[in-house]
Amino acid sequence: MNTENPFSELFQKQKANQFKIGNTTYKERIAKLKRLQDALENTYKQDIREALFQDFKKPFLETDLTEIYPVIDEIKFAISNLKSWLKPEKVATPVSLLGSSSFIVNEPKGVCLIISPWNYPINLTFAPLVSAIVGGNTAILKPSEMTPNTSKLMAKIVSELFDENEIALVEGEVETSEALLELPFNHIFFTGSPAVGKIVMKAASKNLTSVTLELGGKSPTIIDDSSNLEKTVKKIVYGKFTNAGQTCIAPDYVLLQESLKPEFVALFKQEVNTFYSENPESSDSYSRIVNSKHFERLTKALEDAKIKGSIVESGGDFNVSDCYIEPTLVSNLPEDTTLMQEEIFGPILPLKTYKTIEEAVAYVNANKKPLALYIFSKNKKTIDYIIENTRAGSTCVNHILLQFLNHNLPFGGSNNSGIGKSHGVFGFREFTNQRSVLKQHTISAVDLLIPPYTNWKKKLVN
Ligand code: NAD
């Protein structure tokens, strides 16, 4: 191992401590989770709201709902289930192995690395940490440099709650991630873009480190003519413009039955107006784009669409001084536009129409497997047809984002949108190794089948 690595010492300290942490009881792990819960729910709640507001004007209530509450929920769910998850699972033993018993022991992976993105920094750093703690691991956390106020606050919280030999948070830019990725972690849990996911997986392969990759991509939303369009548009406007569209499972684009377009456009304008007023820039319920780099990326993509003949049906305003982009709806997009080629990750919604549901499904399947696929329809046959003939990390029917909130469901992507799952027991499994243990109690039939292979009948008699 490279001893010049700035994080070698920290890594070695956690490695030396891993069995102590791995052998903690479920009660000790619950105590740690409760400390984290108290910090998020009480001690640091207001500081978290303020840090995120400084980083990208995220509204306080949205911070409570999308950052603090989901981690508290993950903690509570883990506390109620941890004892049963940690219990060795007795499994059947075949007759040929008579005289023995078999168990699956969920042992800690060891020293883990959690790299998180900026868009939900509290949620996407601390929720995986909950799974790491439940699994009995030590962990180094590396949040994003793009939300510096929140990262700084998280560093303070972590250093107050935990000894660095067990859980440490390091702040830094890409070079920090790169240095960490050189180390032989036992597991890496990465949340971010597919492009960086590939870098993480390549680095992990050097040490054959297991990975969970929670990635992104273009999540389609298919709407057919049986859906209640008013309710549908309200939910889409909510799901798309929460966090100013900077949500991995936000609807990336809409596939709409052709005849519904005029009504959809009118309802879109109406709902944006209701949610954020006629001037969303003055609304205290609407976030900003995280930084000028992402602001520029999005305004360039909009410009590219306009040059190529697309129609801005609603919105389109922006203000560079505040990284503000109005909730925007664009139609008539040629396939070669940035908006149709890349994950948007901002408040611009492309609207594409289709004639038949088969055409919509074929369009989805011509692209990479999405993280989420949304369906708005009252027709069971259509819903089943879409689910059976597409592939996606998750699907929510007749609503948006809710699949993320059920801890009994695995959360994650498939291929380009991710590898592995998080939340509840699925997150716990990512941070543990399912170790097989077979205990032999009495003589086994297998003992008779050892060399020399001649005279085995005689051995049986004896
Ligand atoms: P990103 O991939 O640019 O960065 C994520 C993390 O990786 C950050 O901590 C960053 O410092 C680090 N990083 C960046 N470049 C790196 C490099 N070359 N080598 C090593 N580390 C590097 O992602 P982002 O912009 O922070 O977040 C947006 C992306 O994350 C979107 O694609 C979105 O869909 C995805 N996302 C996915 C989920 C999910 O749960 N599946 C959740 C949120 C965001």
UniProtKB/TrEMBL annotation:
Gene Ontology MF: a single term: aldehyde dehydrogenase (NAD+) activity
Residues in coiled coil: 23-50
Any Gene Ontology biological process: aldehyde metabolic process
A cellular component term, taken from the record's GO annotations: cytoplasm
Domain of life: Bacteria
Residues forming the catalytic site: E214, C248
Aldehyde dehydrogenase domain sequence ranges: 13-437
Keywords: Coiled coil, NAD, Oxidoreductase
Family assignment from sequence similarity: Belongs to the aldehyde dehydrogenase family.
Protein name: Aldehyde dehydrogenase
